[in-house]
Amino acid sequence: MDFLKKNYEKVLLGVVLLGLAVAVGFLPYKITSEKQTLEDMRNRLIHLKVKPLTNLDLTLPDTVLKRAAAPATIDLSAPNKLFNPMPWQKAADGHLIKVDVTNIGPNAVTITKMVPLHLKLTLDSVTLLEAGPRYVIGIEKEAAVNPRDRSKTQKYCSLNTKNDTFTLREVKTAPDDPTNATVVLELNDTAQRATVAKDQPFRRVDGYVVDMKYAPEAKTWTNRRVGASLAFNGEDYNIVAITENEVVLSAKSNQKKWTIKYRAGAAP
After folding, report:
1. pTM of the full predicted structure?
2. Which of 16, 136, 155, 185 has the fewest CB atoms within 10 Å around its CB?
């Protein structure tokens, strides 16, 4: 104890020096550890693990691009009539009609009735002569342009004779009655074969006659054929074609054409 009392300062100094020596010896290890820690931190920041990209949903941008590619159409005329107001017209019965392509002009014309026109061929009689049998063929052309050609006429003919309508190509008779015959006619316009007997007439649709009306002016036309003229809405029109379900009108002023559909059963 006396030694410690007399030399405690030296002992304390030795302990401090020993601690300093230990600290100096530990310092390289600490520096190495700190460097490794900093390197690990740097690597974690620089070499991040990036997840792979998934398939992108481009539906929305594709829709926007398609919409942008389509030009925007702004109609300031029909039906909005922003700069050109819609005019109105008084009909024949006094009510007002919008003056547009659906209510005025050819598109407002309606077909109230349509009747087919036929070519009719009949075997009217068979005459037995010494030179051979003669056949009387009745001809009725309802679609003829000239009214006087629409009445029934009769042609006398024999085998292989030709007229302006047909050629008699074949005759079939009953063995016990030569006047009971069936004839085969070849039509000149189409080379169609028509079989005709006394109880078996031949009919073919060659045209149509129509009844029409124009409601805005309370106008009606009956029995109109191809070539007929119609006047309405301050313009003249010709009927240039009629089929089983439509009529074609042509304006005389500019030859513009309109097709009027026939709706069977519509109110007249």
Report:
1. 0.61
2. 16
